[in-house]
Amino acid sequence: MRFFIGFIALGIGCASKAGGGSQDDTEADLDAPPAELVMPDLEGIDLDQAFVDALNLSLSVNTQVAWAGHADSLARRHEGCPDLYVGAPLPLVDDDLLDEDARGTSWYDNCATPGGLFYRGLLYWDAEVGGSGNAETSAGRTSTGRRSLVGNGVVGDDDETRFQLRGEASDSINRVDAPGYSRWTYSSTVTATVTGTDAFDAIASATPGGWRADMYTFATGGDADALELRGDVYLFESRIQGRFDSVSVDITLPGPLGAAPDACTLEPRGWIGIRDENAYWIDVVFLPFEGQDATGPSYEDPAYSACDGCGKAYVRGIEAPPIGEICPDFTQLWADGIVPVPEVADFILDVRGSL
To answer: pTM for the complete prediction?
Structure first.
């Protein structure tokens, strides 16, 4: 986690020589002005839109991408390549990534199909779905799904990588449907590198080329919109506004549907950072006022906590007055849908007939 604290490092030497006869001292000039913050060249960059793009891109980093890419790559499997197993491969058990009694499915091989498609490494997946009730009744129907994908495997040929995952990805869905009523919650955790054309379409994907990410997403919709997003993502090929290759985010944001009367829906609570290819991090920190705290007094400070859709800009963790405030417009986020909501049936990848 990166903190927004600017500081000056003071070096004070106090090492004694053997025998204790003398001491080397390095004096610091406490009256010297701080080093000037060198600002990145932002000509031609729309920072407000860049942070909107960064949030939208971060929302596309989830388990759905990895699961769909793996399913497509496994659909090209030839008999005996790769070998499929019930249970966990021993390397994943030895690395403490899985319990030895894990009951999912895995492939573990170093082979090539007659068409030249190779499978190298190992991947394990597990999923379950459930449901009860009737969506046509007032009590409604509850549907649930959860799945996980773990390992280090790559599928490809001489021309391209079709799918690669190194790490872990898991997600879950819970939804309730009844006449005139719908509610869903979706969560995803990805700590992995994911690449390949089966996961990322070169034209349609928001992140062609793939990413390396540590990202947690929790979203609700239907009767009430809300979003919690935190983590980091590095883009292998795509760039935000042709410049920024990484995003770091830690926010919570209520949507307009179902929000409390005093909730701020114009801006999140937290911060979003984007990094350019010269290692300049530019962050925007939001501090919306949230009204009276039910557990005690609240301390309103309009200068810092106004619900105005704007946040303070920081460069390399230091407040950047030359930039001032950044005011991304996140309202379209809710109109387009927070995240793609998977169908419960999509959680099952059944290849047991091929075992």
So the answer is: 0.84
